[in-house]
Write a structure and sequence with these properties.
Layout (H helix, E strand, L loop, with lengths): L6 H11 L6 H22 L8 E5 L5 E3 H15 L4 E6 L6 E2 L9 E9 L10 E9 L10 H4 L8 E7 L3 E6 L5 E6 L4 E6 L10 E3 L10 H10 L11 E2 L5 H11 L2 E4 L15 H14 L3 E3 L19 E4 L1 H17 L1
Parallel strand pairs: 3-5, 11-12, 11-13
Antiparallel strand pairs: 1-2, 3-4, 5-6, 6-7, 7-8, 8-9, 9-10, 13-15, 14-15
The structure holds 6-O-phosphono-alpha-D-fructofuranose.
Main location: cytoplasm
Subunit structure: Homotetramer.
Keywords: Carbohydrate metabolism, Cytoplasm, Hydrolase, Magnesium, Metal-binding
């Protein structure tokens, strides 16, 4: 057998390098990996058995819940509750923090996840994904959990990543020391290290944004898009537009090839001028990954990982990807801010 490194082996190796590591993290990650395998099996069969279509429910985001969304959410809550190392969970599908049932052992970790992001693409077989963000509680383990334990800045994450369900199932994550990619070998049911130490190119050739909403954007975003489409940009030719409408798929392509993903503020509703992506279960984990791979993630002006969350389902404008491309956006926003 070639030098095949499994994800459990990789975590254990890294565990050694984390001072005071107690193996709790490995327990948590093993349950996450098992959840990924179970969800991957359902996603890959989605066209064959009746897990397509809508459940008829509406989630906290006001979106119609697809059966696979609900299934993935149930699997993650069930498996992670049994890790014995969590004090709380939060899901994009649930309005409130999910407490670990009393009869299960608890620990000091908190995990926030989007169980199946991009689910509107399920029926047309476009890549979808699970996104996760892991923190350690800050309050005393014996005390009652505080909302500030869950609503931590993204820079406090101890790990983050995503599982991409597509032509192959991939697990990409960072525990702070580099970004590593694992591909599921279905013949043995193991995630094998396939992309060690992923680095995002300093400058890309791709921009990813839903141009259908351009009329609702602020002037800075419009200016940024015209830069990437202009032959006078740093590349001396227009960037290619690539947007599939599934964050994990768009992000993953840009992570490997380089480029910038944008989900800007949307001025349709002056009361909600912040765009669609959720800070805690989409922007923070992706920002953690991209920074550990050498890229940047901002809301236009501010580093995503520095934003103090005020509530669980808070949204944020999101510009994320190759450092030089994100810096162009930041310079445009800063110039406008100086003019105001
Ligand atoms: P739009 C999926 O619902 C999602 O949250 C992300 O996966 C994706 O990037 C975005 O929405 C797509 O949104 O408004 O372009 O369809």
């Amino acid at each position: 057998m070639s030098q095949q490194v499994t994800v459990t082996e990789h975590i254990l190796l890294h565990q050694k390098m984390i001072p005071g590591a107690t193996g709790q993290f490995t327990r948590l990650f093993n349950e996450l990996v098992l959840s990924a395998k179970i969800i991957a099996r359902a996603v890959n069969k989605a066209g064959l058995v009746d897990v397509l279509g809508f459940t008829g429910d509406i989630n906290v985001q006001g979106e119609e819940v697809k059966k696979l969304d609900e299934y993935a959410n149930r699997i993650l809550i069930h498996r992670l509750s049994r890790s014995g190392v969590l004090c709380a969970m939060a899901s994009e599908e649930n309005a409130d923090i999910i407490e670990v049932p009393e009869n299960f052992p608890r620990g000091d970790y908190i995990i926030i996840f989007d169980p199946l992001d991009g689910s509107s693409n399920i029926d047309v077989n476009v890549n979808i994904g699970t996104i996760f963000s892991i923190f350690k509680r800050r309050s005393n383990s014996d005390a009652a959990l505080l909302s500030s334990d869950v609503l931590q800045k993204g820079s406090e994450q101890v790990a983050a990543g995503y599982i991409l369900y597509g032509s192959s199932t991939m697990l990409i994550f960072s525990t702070g020391d580099g970004v590593h990619g694992f591909t599921l070998d279905p013949s043995v049911g193991e995630f094998i290290l396939s992309h060690p130490n992923i680095r995002i190119p300093e400058q890309g050739k791709i921009y990813s944004v839903n141009e259908g909403y351009e009329r609702y954007w602020d002037r800075d975003t419009k200016k940024a898009l015209s830069y990437f489409k202009s032959p006078k940009n740093a590349l001396r030719k227009p960037y290619s537009g690539r947007y599939i409408g599934s964050l994990v798929a768009d992000f993953h392509r840009n992570l490997l090839y380089g480029g910038i993903f944008m989900y800007p503020a949307d001025l349709r509703d002056p009361k909600k001028p912040w765009g669609k992506l959720r800070l805690t279960c989409e922007c923070n984990p992706m920002a953690f990954i991209v920074e550990k791979a050498g890229g940047l993630a901002i809301d236009g002006l501010k580093r995503i990982l520095d934003i103090e969350p005020e509530h669980l389902h808070q949204r944020a404008p999101f510009f994320c990807g190759s450092a030089k491309d994100v810096q162009v956006v930041q310079e445009i926003f800063e110039a406008e801010a100086r003019r105001k």
